[in-house]
DNA sequence: CAAGTGTACTAGATCAACTAATACACTTAT
DNA sequence: ATAAGTGTATTAGTTGATCTAGTACACTTG
């Protein structure tokens, strides 16, 4: 009903699952205090070992995105307070990219132009995709 | 004399080494046709197994950044032709960041502002560092 | 009580990364 | 020619992360 596993993805399964749930939480697809699928049921659905799901849920809880109640289940935490941290994470990544860009002579202006326009020299992106970005 | 290994870095050693050499090549620190340290000497210097250096050099050669001559050594290739490819790589990374940003409501404008200003809310960056960026 | 929940633990399989040792063909300097 | 240094290949073993498998326990709910 939910997630599908991408086997071309080389990240560990538990990380892949955790990041997809994280995205749904941040997007608001999953509301505060909403119950996540049980460890066993999601494991069954994805044909994966329950321990792997358990690990994914553990990392989510460790990051404050969910909370667990023994005997009841795992639930979505309040995502609002986590946005500043996520924002920092993204800026940190951006720092790394800017450093790489500088090495090959890509200026800040060119990066900004790419972000603004988006279209230029990115074969994977189509007009249609562009539209769907809203 | 050259590279130092960062053990806090969780990437594989060979990748870490390769990327540092790659950066030096793209920066122009290493000129075209300049000889790299021999597999054995660099291994000795870094207290690392020669096979690990060998793997780093292999990946560099596979990416077209170096070329090897049996019995003579490994040398820096012409980096000029590789810039477009690297540029694409960076834009691809930028696409990923933009997607993450959109999820948490970070606008393109905010990303652009960060690139332009750079300073805001990045605790690791100091005025001094900013200056050294040239 | 029974079923479903999170959680913990042990055990084994698999794979990538790394170390270790050895070998071969080549080039260069002596 | 010899020796030293080079890239390259091969085999073997270690380690750690990932994943599967099975079991167990305490908890909550109907």
Structure overview:
Two copies of one chain form a homodimer. Chain A is mainly α. Chain A has two domains: 13-76, Winged helix-like DNA-binding domain superfamily/Winged helix DNA-binding domain (Arc Repressor Mutant, subunit A, Orthogonal Bundle), CATH 1.10.10; 82-133, no CATH class. Helices cover 54% and strands 6% of the residues of chain A. The first copy, chain A, has six helices and two strands, in the order αααββααα. Chain A has a two-stranded antiparallel ribbon. In chain A, a hairpin with a 3-residue loop joins β1 and β2. In chain A, α1 crosses α3. Chain A is elongated. Chain A binds a DNA duplex (30 and 30 nucleotides) through residues 12-14, 38-41, 48-52, 54-55, 57-58, 68-74.
Compact description:
With 134 residues, chain A is mainly α.
CA radius of gyration of chain A? 18 Å
* Rough outline of chain A: elongated
Alpha-carbon distance between the two ends of chain A: 26 Å
**What's the helix count of chain A?**
6
Strand order of the largest sheet of chain A: 1-2
Structural class assignment of chain A = mainly alpha
Helix amount of chain A: 40-55%
Features:
homodimer; about 130 residues; mainly alpha; 2 domains; two-stranded antiparallel sheet; 6 helices; 2 strands; about 55% helix; about 5% strand; elongated; DNA-binding
Write the layout of secondary structure elements.
2 copies of one chain form a homodimer.
Chain A: H1 13-27, H2 39-46, H3 50-62, E1 66-69, E2 73-76, H4 83-103, H5 108-117, H6 127-132
Antiparallel strand pairs in A: 1-2
Helix pairs in contact in A: 1-3, 2-3
Chain A binds a DNA duplex (30 and 30 nucleotides) through helix 2 and helix 3.
